Amino acid sequence: LAEIISTTTDDKLNDLFTKSNVYIKNYNDTALINTPISKAINLDYELKEVSKSAPEKDISEGSSKDQMLYIYTSGTTGMPKAAIMSQSRAIYMAMGAQHLAGIFEHDVVYTPLPLYHTAGGILGVSSVLLGGSTCVIRSKFSASNYWNDCLKYECTVAQYIGEMCRYCLASPPSEADKTHQVRLIMGNGLRPQIWTDFVTRFNIKQVAEFYGATEGNANMMNTANKVGAVGFIPFIGEPFYPVTLIRVDPDTNEPIRGKNNLCIKCKVGEPGLLVGKIRKTTENSFSGYVEKSASEKKIIKDVFSKGDKVFNSGDVLIRDEYNFYYFKDRTGDTFRWKGENVSTSEVEAAISNIVKLKDCIVYGVEIPHTEGKAGMVSIVDESNDLDLDKLSAGINKSLPAYARPLFLRIVKTPVSLTGTFKMKKNDVQNDGFDLTKVAGDPLYFNEGRKFVPLTQELHDSIVNGAKRL
Questions:
Q1: What is its EC number (predicted)?
Q2: CA distance to 101, 127, 184, 187, per residue, from 223 (Å)
Q3: What are the boundaries of each domain within the chain?
């Protein structure tokens, strides 16, 4: 930025900073004092005034393990928690992502993500601070302007997270969809059900989909364009990067242990809880949260040997024969119905495709006199154009019987999103199918071939066990 200031002060630059609300003060041109670029600081000028004296000898020396900052988790399933980010952790995370994805000094990185989360504040901005590239920052994500911004600022790399890709895919086609220069998109949350459609429509040559948690040590990235994979760990790297899947009870979310009271590793194709071994000698190990009790909840002890510890990611993944990993669900979101495990993320993706990529949330609800939880879906329908017959037919065609939601709630107002563009389930999940709690939103019951209004009489027959499910 300082280099640009010292060499360019033409109308084009003036216009650029006027539109982007960035202000520059140029000490060499008095004509610019009252212009929109007169309120920032010229680093070239200011650095000349910095003292050249050596610092005091007793100044404390920093350590790579020193706390750099706190980053609050997104709060998808509960209250946000302050995760500790050390100096080394931030650097390893940033440089690792840049090298794996292939982001270079000549790249222009587009970041419409909040900078108070890891993806934008560490992975995005670090492309400038540590990699020397250029970063274009948008204060708030806009699906309609995403590709227009990339085209305008000649971006070559673009970031995404959560539901952003689905929102972009649902937006009307534009000329910028294919005339931009973006060669690489990097982020997490690109669902396999829309992956191919997304890269085809927007002409993306490479996707760097990653899996990670701000506080975790089980992070990975898929740089091979493997559709649906969130990461890859070479077999040769397993001893140096001990990340694996263990069997977990879907009802209690607790690890399943063998006769020796140790955890059991999952086989290829078997869903399991992702864990990362905690080694204090490793700079990038689990740092935890500010609140120690919250940190303890994320640690599993005596996993593969007596006394060892692992970080509990809270996520269920699947590994294929080539060691690509695929996200399946959050441990707290998966539920059992009719003796089968139901993945809410898979059902959400299927229903979202049926209803033209509208926001939808799937969760389990308890019904008296029945085992497990029945599926329920809340669909946001602000335009009031949801076709229930088409929805029912699509669900019956694309989902097995046990995974088909029994209840439907039509929400007229947008669902609350976290800062990382993930939908919050707590509010609608707590309401369930209780007619007194869902006042104002239409509720329906899945009769098999169609959704029918959930009347008080029908509701009572379900709760009393008179209605056959």
A1: 6.2.1.3
A2: 6, 17, 10, 11
A3: 2-48, 67-243+319-328, 333-463
